[in-house]
Specification:
Elements: E1 3-8, H1 20-23, H2 28-42, E2 45-50, H3 54-64, E3 70-74, H4 78-81, H5 83-92, E4 96-100, E5 122-125, H6 130-146
Bound molecules: 1,3,4-trihydroxy-5-OXO-cyclohexanecarboxylic acid (DQA).
1,3,4-trihydroxy-5-OXO-cyclohexanecarboxylic acid binds near residues 11, 74, 102 and 111.
Length: about 160
């Protein structure tokens, strides 16, 4: 079975109460629940992990090699700042899909650049919690089409 690692970066543990006008009112638990339901429909397994610490994100990315086929990641603000995160993704050479709840391109200029996006296979931003589900679909499609003839994306 295809195994996906889902990583949530800093401050995402506060979802539900954190700037609801920007990030909505669903909690991270709600989002993880939706993701595990979608994973079941897709026939893949997911492990989820949230941390506020950059080094822990790096450790999880390193440990993913050999244990997961791909990584779905909302690195939060670290995507705008962390070259180490970019290097870790390049090092493990697993397909990564970056997601953001908000449309970072339509926000402050410091959010316009992402180090993660430079090494990600795809980016989904601006759809709220749906960004994660769309990102999961896309990542699974990337992985499955690597290991055989491409499957068509069917809703
Ligand atoms: C975010 C966007 C980032 O700019 C911000 O720092 C976050 C959340 C998003 O999901 O929209 O923490 O990653």
């Amino acid at each position: 079975m295809v195994r996906i690692l889902i990583l949530h970066g800093p401050n995402l543990n506060l979802l539900g109460t954190r700037e609801p006008a920007v990030y909505g009112t669903l909690t991270l638990g709600n989002i993880d629940h939706q993701l595990s339901q979608r994973a079941q429909q897709l026939g893949v397994s997911v492990d989820t992990f949230q941390t506020n610490h950059e080094g822990e994100l790096l450790d999880r990315i390193h440990a993913a090699r050999g244990n997961f086929e791909g990584i779905l990641m909302n690195a939060g603000a670290f995507c705008h700042t962390s070259i180490a995160l970019r290097d870790a993704i390049s090092a493990v050479a697993l397909p990564v899909v970056e997601v953001h709840l908000s449309n970072t391109a339509a926000r402050e200029t410091f959010r316009h650049h992402s180090y993660v996006a430079e090494v990600a296979r795809g980016v989904v931003a601006g759809f709220g919690p749906l960004s994660y589900l769309l990102g999961l679909d896309g990542l699974v499609e990337i992985i499955r089409s690597q290991s055989g003839p491409g499957i068509e994306y069917v809703r």
